[in-house]
Structure to design on (540 residues):
C-alpha cells in the first residue's frame, strides 16, 4: 500500500552507531521509550492515523451541528409553549391522548407533519382521512401520559431520558408506530442494563416485541449460565406461561454446545 | 500517561541477538518493515489509537442515523406531494412566494412549524400575528424561484445542491433569515471554490454579507498576490464602486508585512 523511503538499510559506521543507540525508541504518541519488541507502527502510518483521527473528529463536529439544526424544539418544551398572554405559538394541528391511563386524559399537542414524517403508521393514519385525521385527535391505548409525552418528544428531538421502565414503554410504542430509530435507542439501553437477575424477564419481553438485539444478548447471557437457570424463580413462571420460549432457550443452548464442540474438534485436528 | 512493561531492557545473550535481528521492525498497520529512525508509536499506543478510531467511526454511524431520523422529507419532494386524486398529503399551512422574480409567482408550500424552528426571523414573523401569519403567504423579494425552493428544501433536509451562483443566493437568504447552519454550509463551499480569478469579487460579496470565513480566505489570497492586484480588471471597478473595501485590503497587507517582519526579527535574534 505504501512505500517507505528507507527500506534497505545501507550502513555507514555512524549509522550503525546511531542505530545501536536507538535500540529503545521514543513513541511519538505517549513520548515514552520503548524497545523493538513493543513497536507499533512506522512514522508514516502514525502520521496518517493522526490525520484520519482529525478528519473523523471534524466529521463528528459537522454531524453534531447538523443534528442540532435538524432537531426540533418539542411542542412540549416550556420555552416554546408560549405564555398565557401569547398562547400557542407552535401551531400544533393534532393532539395525542393516552386513553387507558385511568386518569383524566391530558392531550399532548403535536404536528401532523412531524408525526407523518417519523412514523409510517401515523403517515397511513393521517394521510388517509381516517377518523384521527378528521378529528385531530389520536387516542393511544395501554400507555401512560409520561410515556406518551416522552414518545412525542422523541419524535421531535431524537432524545429521551430513559430508565428501564421508560425504555420498555417507549420500545412498545416504537414497535407499534414503527419508529425504528427509537426502537434501536431503547434496545441499546436495555442491553446495557442486562444482568443475570433480569435476563429471563428481558428475554421474554424482547421476544414479545421483536427486539432482536436485546433478545440475542439476553439469550447469550442465559445460555452462559444454564446451571443456574432452573433455580430461577422466573423460570417456573415462564414454563407455566409460555413454554415455547423456554424451549427456544434449550434449543439455543444445544446449538451453542454443538458449535463449541465443532470448534474444539477443529482446533484439535489442526 | 501510560506505563510500559518493558522499559528497562534487561539483556540476556539471546535477547541481544534477537534485538539485533529486530533492527528493522514490521509496522502493525501497513505490514511493511521499517528501521528505527522511521519508528512511529509503541504497540500500546497503536492499539489505543485503533480503538479510538473504531469508537469515532461508531459515533459517526450513530450521528448519521440520527440525522436520517431527524431529516424531514421536503414538502417539495415529489414522492410525498401526493397525486391529483389524493392531493396535499403533507399538511402545509403556509406558502412562500418569490415576489421579484419577473415570472408569474409559483408558491412554495411549507409548514409554519418548520420555518419557525429553523429561523428566528420566521419565528418573529409568524408568532407575532404579522400579516404573513394571517395571510399564510410570505413574500420574499430579490430571489429566484429556484433559490427559494432550494432554501425551503434546506430548512427541511439540511441538504442542498450548490454551484457558485446557488451558494451566493442561499447565503444571502441564510443571512436575511438567520439560518446559521445554511450560511456555514455556503461559506465552506465558496471557500472551496476560491481562486485568484474570483478572489476580488468573492471578497466584495463576503464583505457585503458578513461571511467572515469567506472574507478571511479571500483576503489572504489577495494579500498573498499583491504584485498582481492592481492589474486585475475588477480592481479598478472596486476602487470606483467601494474604495473602502480596497483600503481594507491594503490595511490587511500592511498588517501582514509587519507581522512577518516581527517573526523574522524574532527568529534572527533566537
Amino acid at each position: 500500500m505504501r512505500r517507505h523511503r528507507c527500506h534497505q538499510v545501507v550502513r555507514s559506521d555512524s549509522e550503525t552507531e546511531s542505530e545501536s543507540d536507538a535500540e529503545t525508541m521514543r513513541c511519538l504518541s505517549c513520548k515514552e521509550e520503548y524497545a523493538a519488541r513493543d513497536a507499533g507502527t512506522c512514522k508514516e502510518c502514525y502520521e496518517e492515523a493522526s490525520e484520519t483521527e482529525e478528519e473523523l473528529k471534524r466529521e463528528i463536529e459537522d454531524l453534531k451541528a447538523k443534528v442540532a439544526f435538524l432537531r426540533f424544539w418539542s411542542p412540549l418544551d416550556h420555552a416554546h409553549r408560549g405564555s398565557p398572554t401569547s398562547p400557542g405559538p407552535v401551531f400544533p394541528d393534532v393532539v395525542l391522548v393516552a386513553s387507558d391511563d385511568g386518569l383524566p386524559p391530558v392531550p399532548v399537542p403535536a404536528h401532523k407533519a412531524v408525526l407523518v414524517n417519523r412514523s409510517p403508521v401515523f403517515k397511513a393514519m393521517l394521510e388517509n382521512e381516517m377518523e384521527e385525521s378528521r378529528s385531530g385527535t389520536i387516542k393511544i391505548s395501554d400507555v401512560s401520559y409520561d410515556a406518551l409525552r416522552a414518545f412525542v418528544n422523541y419524535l421531535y428531538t431524537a432524545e429521551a431520558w430513559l430508565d428501564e421502565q421508560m425504555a420498555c414503554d417507549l420500545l412498545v410504542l416504537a414497535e407499534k408506530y414503527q419508529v425504528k430509530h427509537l426502537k434501536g435507542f431503547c434496545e441499546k439501553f436495555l442491553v446495557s442494563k442486562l444482568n443475570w437477575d433480569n435476563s429471563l424477564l428481558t428475554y421474554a419481553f424482547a421476544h414479545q416485541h421483536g427486539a432482536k438485539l436485546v433478545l440475542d444478548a439476553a439469550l447469550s447471557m442465559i445460555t452462559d449460565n444454564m446451571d443456574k437457570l432452573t433455580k430461577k424463580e422466573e423460570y417456573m413462571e415462564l414454563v407455566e406461561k409460555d413454554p415455547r420460549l423456554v424451549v427456544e432457550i434449550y434449543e439455543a443452548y444445544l446449538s451453542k454446545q454443538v458449535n463449541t464442540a465443532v470448534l474444539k474438534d477443529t482446533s484439535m485436528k489442526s
